[in-house]
Write a structure and sequence with these properties.
The complex is a heterodimer of chains A (about 400) and B (about 80). Chain A is of the alpha/beta class and about 400 residues long. Helix content of chain A is about 40%, strand content about 15%. Chain A has a six-stranded mixed beta sheet, with helices on both faces. In chain A, strands 8-7-6-9 form a four-stranded parallel beta sheet, with helices on both faces. Chain A has a three-stranded antiparallel beta sheet with strand order 2-1-3. The longest helix of chain A has 15 residues, at about 110-125. In chain A, about 55% of the residues are buried. Chain B has a four-stranded antiparallel beta sheet with strand order 2-3-1-4, covered by helices on one side. The radius of gyration of chain B is 12 Å and the shape is globular. Classes of the chains: A alpha/beta (about 400), B alpha+beta (about 80).
């Protein structure tokens, strides 16, 4: 059952009922779900979780909706793989990859959209909507199809056609909007405030973002009920990052794991790195910027949760790392060629940030480090097109032996 | 009467300008500051603009022309 008891303002603490609302009427601060932790503690145990379904809904006691009504494509319980080859390359003996690229629509967004679409149905919405340039669009369209909801996806008019197909196949109403990124952003925000739609990352945001906590729960359970020493995760809006932190701490609060001493490391590409720049400047407020990065899925120039990310880093001793744009593809290739995992550009950012932190001596070689891979590389193939270097031969043995040296 | 909740971010050169005052005096709108953090180099103000829809739009366009950023309080809602 769901133990969500209210929404509370992350700034002033005012409480609100569980409704489709995302902002405090008083200070305009963001709202977050509050739970009845005493009730959860009485209901929860490691055994109960272990006996649950083999997907993210095994943790529904920590989510604002219950699994009985879940819009579920089979999301979660993705592999946590010991990355010995990449670890050897980086001098890390306990490196793990959380491969969330294998979710139903090939990104972690299925976790948040599964929660948001379930909550939207519970509230009685008939239309599920989002504004997206990729992963979110696909996930919303797929969940809308599964839930039998009308689905509305807004995309910038200049978005590459190939990126649209991953959403359009599920049959949403696709609206392409002319204008700059900021123009599209402003329009979508206004539309969300003035229409009876469940916009997953606007009026459903308090519920939507809770889905990312399952990334922490799964890792803790898969590591044998403990939090890692270090996490390296991508930073876009900052929501995923803060919810991973929240997830570990909720598990500790409920006594499911020991006290959390995890150090959090956030990864951005230089072309869109407002959080890393604020971290470097030692301030808690990120200055908005116009995204210009190959890591499109991290291209959020005005991240809603930047302040909360920077607060975690300040209090927990972590770091926000900006990797050069040319290291994004290198990171993707390094991951693919050491661990056989083809992650998208955000994965390249994470692996490159991991490499930089390892080379800087931030990790003790025996510490447990978990890197989050949040999307599939098939969505961003163009960034690693240079890896295609076939050896062309005539169809005979002589040509093969003359040109192909498989030991090289 | 319409209402719009926005975040205005100032670059260094505009931090000292009375932009919020001008929004209220140049346009027929009411401005209500809810949170703010303004320093010597940069600053932001979260405020509510109330008035006719058209007047609010004109005020936002004017603010953008002055060189500040005007964003929805939800931040960037277009996700990858």
């Amino acid at each position: 059952m769901a133990f969500a008891s209210a929404l509370h303002c992350r700034e002033c603490g005012r409480e609100y009922p569980i409704e489709p609302n995302y902002v405090c009427d008083f200070c305009f601060g963001p709202l977050e779900v509050t739970y009845d932790y005493d009730a959860i503690q009485k209901a929860i145990s490691r055994e109960k979780i272990s006996d649950g379904p083999m997907d993210m809904w095994r943790y529904d006691d920590f989510l604002p909706v219950s699994r009985e009504n879940a819009v579920n494509l089979g999301t979660g319980m993705t592999p946590l793989l010991k990355a010995d080859n990449l670890g050897k390359e980086l001098g890390l003996n306990n490196l793990w990859i959380k491969n969330d690229a294998v979710n139903p629509t090939y990104s972690f967004k299925d976790r948040v959209v599964s929660v948001a679409s379930t909550k939207a149905l519970e509230f009685g919405f008939e239309t599920l909507a989002c504004a997206s340039t990729g992963n979110l669009a696909g996930s919303v369209a797929a969940h809308g199809a599964k839930a039998g909801m009308k689905t509305l996806v807004f995309i910038p008019a200049d978005l590459e056609y190939g990126k649209v197909i991953g959403a359009s196949v599920y049959g949403p109403t696709l609206v392409t909007v002319n204008g700059s990124y900021d123009d599209v952003n402003r329009l979508c925000s206004e539309l969300a405030d003035n229409n009876p739609w469940a916009v997953v990352n606007i009026n459903m945001r308090p519920y939507y973002s809770e889905g990312s906590k399952t990334l922490a729960y799964e890792v803790a359970e898969q590591l044998g009920w403990r939090a890692p020493d270090h996490v390296v995760a991508p930073l876009a809006s900052g929501s995923l990052f803060t919810k991973i932190w929240k997830g570990f701490n909720e598990f500790a609060k409920m006594g499911l794991i020991d006290e959390v001493t995890t150090t959090m490391h956030g990864a951005q590409a230089v072309g869109c790195s407002p959080i890393a720049k604020a971290y470097d400047a030692g301030v808690l407020h990120a200055k908005p910027e116009v995204p210009n990065t190959v890591a499109k899925s991290l291209g959020i120039g005005n991240p809603a949760d930047a302040y909360y990310v920077l607060k975690i880093l300040k209090e927990g001793g972590g770091a926000a790392v900006a990797v050069p744009e040319d290291e994004v593809g290198e990171g993707m290739i390094l991951l693919a060629q050491t661990e056989g995992i083809f992650g998208e550009t955000a994965a390249g950012v994470v692996v490159s940030a991991l490499k930089r932190q390892a080379e800087a001596g931030v990790f003790d070689p025996d510490e447990t480090v978990v890197a989050y891979i949040t999307g599939n590389g098939l969505k961003t193939q163009e960034v690693v097109a240079s890896s295609v270097q076939p050896i062309n031969i005539e169809p005979n043995m002589e040509a093969f032996e003359a040109k192909v040296n498989i030991t090289s | 009467m319409a209402s719009r909740r926005v975040k205005i971010t100032f670059p260094e050169v505009l931090v000292g300008r009375p932009l919020v005052y001008n929004l209220g005096s140049k346009f027929d709108i009411v401005t209500s500051i809810r949170r703010a953090d303004v320093g010597a180099e940069t600053g932001w103000v979260i405020l509510e603009l109330q008035g006719d829809e058209e007047e609010i739009n004109k005020a936002i366009i004017w603010a953008l022309e002055q060189g500040v950023r005007v964003d929805p309080i939800a931040g960037d809602v277009i996700e990858g």
